[in-house]
Amino acid sequence: MSVAKVILQPRKARPFFGRHPWVLDSAIGQIEGEPRDGDEVELFTVEGQFVARGLFNSASRIRVRLYTWQADQPLDETFWRQRLESAVRLRKILGHLQPEGAERLVFSEADGLSGLIVDRYRDYLAIEFTSLGMALRQELLVGLLAELLRPRGMVLRSERGAARGEGAMPPQGPCWGQPPDGPVFITEHGVRYGVDVCEGQKTGFFLDQRENRLAAARYMHGRRLLDVCCYSGGFALVCALRGEAREVLAIDTSARAIALARANAELNGVANVRFETADAFSYLPELAAEGQRFDAVILDPPKFAQRRESLEAALRAYYQLNRMALDLLAPDGVLVTCSCSGYVSREDLLHVLAEVAQRSGRTIQVLEQRGAAPDHPTSASCLESEYLKCFICRVE
User: Fold this and answer.
1) How does DSSP assign 72-140, residue by residue?
2) What is the domain class of 77-177 according to CATH?
């Protein structure tokens, strides 16, 4: 079947021969044909050389998302099945897909499926569409996932800002099978968590921090810990149960998250963790004024930089949060500081720590530089898929 052709501007083809999947509107010279939003298109150089096939969206700054660099490979059911099978195969290699576990099954560009995220929580799948082209193929993709994984039910989740950047997107809610009628209980590192798959933050749980939770716990033996932006208790409970922290105070601005965290603590019989609903930027100075001191502080804040234009403000927020943490840290304390903002680079976060060290007069030693769990791989062709930074530090 004939498809429309998207012709690049002169000297704009190199990133796409390098398999970067995002063709921005500024790279396009002309369009031959009249593709509708979501239609398959072919990408060509101005000299007429084929580059790749992708999905078109006139409403998005990412005008074309690329999926295959083979001229004779249409984006049909066979193609999407093969891509999903490859993604699931990786998680099997990683040793995931355990009956009581959870993992990210599909990670958008990193799995060659730009605009699609799929997380598994036991017998349920949470699906996010972050591109219109993939959302328009919802019925096909949900059917393939049902065939490959045979879940009990699937739930559509919506990413904040996706509709603004892509156009009309499907509403959040059940999309296949029987939705969960309450929390879905998973086990990670021997700790049980109830996950709100239908309405919890992200798709219900911060799966990308899986290995970082265990890494942080190794430094927590006998320590008094402050866990900031704790959500449903991921770091706090692993540090208490696996890390043998002496005492944990965990805070989050969301009362709903704190209620879930307390339920998770009760589920695991944990008595030395206290959860409080509080805003970090006002509560941490209060703790410092009271003379409170902690042997360890974990900072896992939300995405401060939603857009490139907000980077400067985000860096100020990271500085302020880390500076307040040092005011609470005892000598030889452990600081675990994270950023999930893709626009904030690893170097940016290191520069923040350098400024914090300078202004506080304290030495910060970075012991470990970590990223997302392996089920959130980074595509070498799309470095934007590396977004999570986690530094474990000693503060003298």
Assistant:
1) T--SSHHHHHHHHHHHHHHHHHTT---TT-EEEEEEGGGGT-TTEEEEEETTEEEEEE-SHHHHTTHHH
2) alpha beta
User: What is the token pair recorded at 280?
Assistant: 């970090």
| Residue 220 structure tokens | 């927590």
pTM of the complete model: 0.94
Note the pLDDT tens digit of each residue in 270-299.
999 999 999 999 999 999 999 999 999 999
Q: Centre a 10 Å sphere on the Cβ of residue 233 and count the other Cβ atoms it contains.
A: 30
Sorted by sequence, the CB contacts under 8 Å of residue 345 that are 6+ apart come out as none
Burial 167-180 (b: 16+ CB within 10 A, else e): bebbeeeebbbeeb
| C-alpha to C-alpha distance for 121 and 104, rounded to whole angstroms | 9
What residues does each domain of the chain span?
4-68, 77-177, 206-395
Residues 6+ apart with CB under 8 A from 137: 38, 80
- Whether residue 198 lies in the annotated active site: no
**Residue position matching structure tokens 């059940």:** 174
Cα separation, 393 vs 326, whole angstroms: 11
Is 2.30.130.10 the CATH classification of the domain at 4-68?
yes
Catalytic: which of 230, 239, 338, 340? Answer: 340
Identify the CATH number of the domain defined by range 206-395: 3.40.50.150
Amino acid identity at 278? A
